[in-house]
Design goal:
single chain; alpha/beta; Rossmann fold; pyruvate-formate lyase- activating enzyme; OB fold (Dihydrolipoamide Acetyltransferase, E2P); 3 domains; 6-stranded parallel sheet; about 35% helix; about 25% strand; globular; binds S-adenosylmethionine; binds iron/sulfur cluster; binds FE3-S4 cluster
């Protein structure tokens, strides 16, 4: 009988991709994924370290697992992800319930580490940066997981060292996977039913793989994926404004599968703050990238990330952020109050008052949500293309996404899963579009 593994994932899409890979690897040593924590033989907590209280959240989760297992034998407890990398041996010392700590660039060693633990019961911590070996190992594991929309990590790590960010420390230096390894993984995904591929990297547009005098960039990957039959949609995230090179921008002229929605974090609308953040780009360059893309295709829309209350942010800097939002009219964005992260340059700077940051965050979010709702409202009574991802259990309803990543809910049969259908939007709110299947579809609701 196979053993059961329950995995809980925090953080970015890369952690979601990694969790799937961890499950694929564990299958080799006889584990199967379970959705039920209480019957698990192994509990994996895949963690994120990006903002404050990350560490505390981990110990809190482990405490909950301990409580759940108070009357039964303890599962094997493994902490993976960015907190594992940052805290490493500290975690084993502080929380004896944890058995193994494995960092993001050591997942290829997860099986041997588990098997060793099963033999000798010695707690272990593996946090080497072995990115090449990791991808070589993990890319050889074939899986049959079928997902309509699949993440595919093409690049990991970061060399940019923005002064607020832990990623360069937790994921290590920038590494781009071999071009053919990525294309082969995409083909396997398509064979398993994938229609949309979301290319991932902490700096996805810094992708650069060199082989016999040729450099392959993100644009080359997009152009090659475009040619694979079965792939209907291509997206990428997260990109850095400095790496929005002309070859990538021009993909929006030629590609029919690249979605007209660009997530491009700017963090602040003030050049002074961008400099203090060590972002290495200016607001004007960002705006000119946006303008160029809009010229190519006026249907392209943007989303971004903002950090509010960064040390040194004055009223004028904040107002510049608001002006930028009014200029670009982002249709969906993430905004956070600055959180001082251990070991980063910004953690040593004088923080601004917490209540000022919170007030500013509220103002910024009202503005961002306003544009988001306005965009959604503008879709009412219009027909949109929706890639159907799954059914909503027990409701005879389907869930899908339009090209702008909005969640769309409408009635229809499961025969539509994996297809792009036309939906008429009948109602909208901030996050969701409600609609009905258009009768123009060649695919009918079952
Ligand atoms: N590589 C991406 C870029 O250059 O914009 C960002 C990746 S980071 C995982 C995702 C987002 O988390 C960032 O865009 C930023 O807005 C937010 N973030 C990172 N560090 C933060 C901090 N110390 N405090 C608040 N937000 C933070
Ligand atoms: Fe973090 Fe992105 Fe800056 Fe890298 S480029 S340090 S991942 S915010
Ligand atoms: Fe979090 Fe690590 Fe992703 S810190 S956002 S899980 S790269």
């Amino acid at each position: 009988m196979s053993k059961k593994v329950f995995i809980k994932t925090f953080g970015c899409q890369m952690n979601v991709y990694d969790s799937d890979k961890i499950i694929d690897a564990l299958k080799i040593i006889g584990y199967e994924k379970s959705e039920n924590l209480n019957s698990a033989d192994c509990f994996v907590l895949n963690t994120c370290h990006i903002r404050d209280k990350a560490k505390e959240k981990v110990y809190h989760e482990i405490g909950r697992v301990r409580e759940a297992f108070v009357n039964q034998s303890k599962p094997l407890v493994i902490v993976t992800g960015c907190v594992a990398q940052a805290e490493n041996t500290e975690m084993l010392k502080r929380e004896p319930y944890i058995d193994l700590v494995i960092g993001p660039q050591s997942y290829h060693k997860i099986n041997e580490t588990i098997l060793q633990f099963e033999n000798n019961k010695l707690k272990n911590e593996i946090t080497d940066f072995d990115t090449i070996e990791k991808f070589n190992y993990l890319s050889k594991i074939q899986n049959k997981i079928s997902k309509v929309s699949s993440f595919l990590t093409i690049q990991e790590g970061c060399d940019k060292f923005c002064h607020f960010c832990v990623v360069p420390y937790t994921r290590g230096p920038e590494y781009s996977r071999p071009f053919n390894q990525i294309i082969n993984e995409a083909k396997t995904m398509v064979q398993n039913g994938t229609k949309e591929i979301i290319l991932l990297g902490q700096n996805v547009n810094a992708y650069s793989f060199k082989e016999t005098n040729k450099e392959f960039r993100l644009s080359d990957l997009i152009i090659s994926l475009e040619k694979i039959n079965g792939i209907e949609r291509i997206r990428y995230t997260t990109s850095h404004p400095r790496d929005m090179t002309k070859d990538l921008l021009d993909c929006y002229k030629v590609s029919k599968k690249l979605m007209p929605f660009v997530h491009l974090p700017i963090q602040s609308g003030s050049n002074k703050i961008l400099k203090l953040m060590n972002r290495k780009h200016r607001v004007e360059e960002y705006v000119s990238t946006v303008n160029y893309l809009k010229e190519i295709n006026d249907k392209i829309e943007f989303s971004s990330d903002f950090i509010i209350g960064y040390p040194g942010e004055e009223k004028e800097d904040f107002e510049n952020t608001l002006k930028l939002i009014d200029k670009i009219k982002f249709i969906n964005s993430y905004s956070f109050v600055f959180s001082a992260r251990p070991g980063t340059t910004a953690s040593k700077l004088k923080p601004i008052e917490d209540n000022i940051s919170k007030k500013r965050l509220k103002i910024v979010q009202e503005k961002l949500f306003g544009y988001q709702k306005l965009k959604n409202k503008s879709l009412e009574n219009k027909f949109i293309d929706v890639l159907v991802e799954n059914e909503i259990k027990g409701q005879n309803k389907l869930f899908g996404r339009n090209p702008y990543m909005n969640s769309v809910i409408f009635e229809g049969g499961i025969n539509l899963i994996g297809k792009i259908v036309q939906v008429k939007v009948t109602k909208t709110n901030q996050n969701t579009l409600i609609g009905e299947l258009s009768n123009k579809n060649k695919f009918k609701a079952a």
